[in-house]
Amino acid sequence: MTQLKPDQATNSAVDRSPVPSEQRNGRGGGTIKKGTVRRLGDRVFQGLSTGSGALILIILALVAAFLLWQGLPALTAPAADLPYGPFPQFVAPLIFGTVWAATLALIMGVPVAIAIALFISHFAPRRLAAGLGYVIDLLAAVPSVVYGLWGIGVLAPALQPVFVWLTENLGFIPLFAGTASGTGRTILTVAVVLAVMILPIVTALSREVFLQVPRLHEEAALALGATRWEMIRMAVLPFARPGIVSASMLGLGRALGETMAVAMVLSPSAIVSFALLTSQNPSTIAANIALSFPESYGLGVNQLIATGLVLFVITLGVNMIARAIVNRRKEFSGAN
């Protein structure tokens, strides 16, 4: 075997060493600098991300400015000049109806959504979970008008006998007091429709949060002798609590701003009442704007836009409260 001299061995080793990517040249002999391309891509991505975030804030500020500019004449005009009467007396029942209907929808919809999300993520077989998740996601694509037609044509007639039974047997409870509506178009029917509408949003987000729970936490709970439900209660739900709160607040925002379904199902009145089954029901801000805007003019339009400003403030306040709740527990969870 021919032995190489020390200097030849050194030269051979140098020749066999890989050439840095920055010094490689193609057929044309040009130098390719991957670091420069990577840094350019990072700068472009950072610019797009920053611009998108700033654009959202600008749009939000423009919406608030428009509502304030158009609603200010109704807020500063004398009460005698306003078509719908003094603004505080006009908007108070609408605020109550908006918050009341959304709260009822949240109470009914969130537990069902969490149960469905837990079933999909921890109990259902993989094939069934995939199909069920797909069906739940499809509910979000159903238009509001379809939900309203379903509420009028199917849900209200089906619930009317139940309302009669509740008023006859549980009428001593203030929520079920009074005479039951003959059509079934009550605030409770609207709340059920809204609960179905927020179901896909809360379910999809909760499912993704449940799937992020560390597998080691679940296995450790089961190894210590916990049952499936105890493992979920001790490991899954505490980890996912901020995500559940965020999902619930997104659903609440959908319920607060829903217009057509509420306007089609409800027979509204300018009242403040906790009765769920009577024919006189408080209206919501969004539904009242949709029903009254075509016939309004002058200060009436400004008065309706001012109620829209109130709804904007309510939604913004709800989201700020939700963010404060999530931030308070962000160090205990990776689901935010």
UniProtKB/TrEMBL annotation:
Q: Which residues cross the membrane?
A: 48-70, 90-120, 132-156, 187-206, 259-277, 297-322
Q: Where is this region: Disordered?
A: 1-34
Q: CDD domains of this UniProt entry? A: TM_PBP2 (cd06261)
Record has Acyltransferase as a keyword: no
Residue limits of the ABC transmembrane type-1 domain? Answer: 95-322
Q: Which PROSITE patterns match?
A: ABC_TM1
Is the keyword Transmembrane helix assigned to this protein? yes
Polar residues bias: start-end ranges: 1-14
Q: Which SUPFAM superfamilies match?
A: MetI-like
Look up the domain of life of the source.
Bacteria
Where located? Cell membrane
Topology in membrane: Multi-pass membrane protein
User: Which Pfam family, an example, fits this chain?
Assistant: BPD_transp_1
InterPro entries reported for this sequence:
MetI-like, MetI-like_sf, Phosphate_PstC, Phosphate_Transport_Permease
Q: Which of UniProt's keywords are assigned here?
A: Cell membrane, Membrane, Phosphate transport, Transmembrane, Transmembrane helix, Transport
Enumerate the Gene3D superfamilies for this protein: MetI-like
Annotated function: Part of the binding-protein-dependent transport system for phosphate; probably responsible for the translocation of the substrate across the membrane.
Q: Which family does the entry's similarity section mention? A: Belongs to the binding-protein-dependent transport system permease family. CysTW subfamily.
Task: Return the protein name.
Answer: Phosphate transport system permease protein
Which organism is this protein's natural source?
Answer: Microlunatus aurantiacus
